[in-house]
Predict the 3D structure of the following.
Amino acid sequence: MIERKEIKYYSSRGAKEALTSAQAIIKGIAPDGGLYVPDQIPKLDIDLTTLIGKSYKEIALLVLSKFYTDFTIEELQYCVDKAYDSKFEASEIAPLKKAGDAYFLELYHGKTAAFKDMALSILPYLLTTALKKEKENKTIAILTATSGDTGKAALEGFADVAGTEIIVFFPKDGVSKIQALQMTTQEGENVHVYAIDGNFDDAQTGVKNIFNDKDFAAELDAKGYKLSSANSINIGRLVPQVAYYVWAYVKLLEQEELQTFNVSVPTGNFGNILAAYYAKEMGIPIGKLICASNVNNVLTDFINNKEYDSRREFHVTSSPSMDILISSNLERLLYHLAKGGIALDDAAANEASNRAGGQVAALMKELAEKGSYRVGEPIASGLKDFYGGFADEEETLNAIGQMYKNNDYLMDTHTAVGYKVFQDYKKSTGDESPTVIASTASPYKFPESVIEAIMSDRASAGSQALVAGEAFAESAEADSKSPQGFEALDLLHEKTGVSVPKELKILREKSVLHEELSDKTKMAEMVSKSLKFF
Ligand SMILES: *Cc1c(COP(=O)(O)O)cnc(C)c1O
């Protein structure tokens, strides 16, 4: 028997309305622009060693049941069974592998070869179950902005799911070739995919504006549609991610005795690392939460200086899923830190929630108006659980090359950012606790960069494996040809022998079905068009 204490969901910006998780999953985003947050983060309250030997599904069910208390265990069991099945190429779902001085939690064995599958393979089931529970008979139009991986994972999850339409916007030049192809080849009667002439923040802002447009919502309502989101602002995305940090701890326990462990998370929209924070608050003994950014290092500065300043140059990097200057899920952390963790009676909890929401609303207003905000207490000291760092392009490729050379382990560019910042953390603190790196994508999703990293002399720096001339020849060869897309993928396979995810193997035979470009100011029109309003 799993003990459950009722959890309600509030807007992070203080709206007083309390929702069930089913209602929050359907709505996606709160009417005041806030994100839905649980009124408290539930405690696991069990002897954690009893989890040893449990399957991924069993652990996911446990975590979901603590947060989604309005769903029955049977409903959640159904969702978990549908999500975590043989569409994952690894039977363990998320294998934990040791390489060098770190553990890698491989979250990329789902259909799209990136960690978004962990949540997006279950979200359609949570959502359709929620619709049934709420006796909602409108068609749900899922609207999603993507920096590459969310879009494809959402398309895979929702394709041909009855009662839903799925509309995805991606930045034209902000995703890898393979990522773009994964989306533009998506089959399904209810799928709509558009490239926009802007970056990820433009896409995300456009989607948020559509959600906040009351007239548009009324028009949709009249036509029998209701908008929802598959972005990590949906609480139906966040909670399934908590499960794999509990899982990682259990897998670690099976391998070594430990007091605490750290996690390092390559971060963009702050969803994945927030899930790790929730796991820590649930009672998993996580020490430091290492927040790793690429050169779009707004979060590094925030954690170190307590000022969030998005007014800076935007960089397109080799880790495009982290090319983000406005990290939506940070808002949830601000809310929890502003509120404090103490369990309160209902009236006091309500008051604390309103106060925290008011504080967050003021910060988000500042962000929207001037592009920055500074946090005071208690948020500032609450950030002590986090370490912020970043890796530039050269450091990212070096990390891939060195790891491959020394440990025969292949990281993608995002994972490499997480690993490099973990190295910096270790150097600056001397903390030798076991550390889990969230491995967020298959190296085959970004083969151009990974091949460059392992074929240039980076991989042999400090070693004698290649003589200098050979290393130079190899790197010159890589430069002159610079293999792209499938050519890079094939070459990477030829050089490393690491197996290629099945879905990427068959991608090259698929036809491109979606080629439309959208002006970033015309996204609402594209939505109307997709839903056949005109
Ligand atoms: C989305 C994504 C990230 C960033 O995750 P957030 O939850 O947005 O912080 C990192 N790596 C990869 C490969 C991703 O797809």
Remarks:
- Residues 55 and 177 are 35 Å apart (CA to CA).
- The longest strand covers residues 164-171.
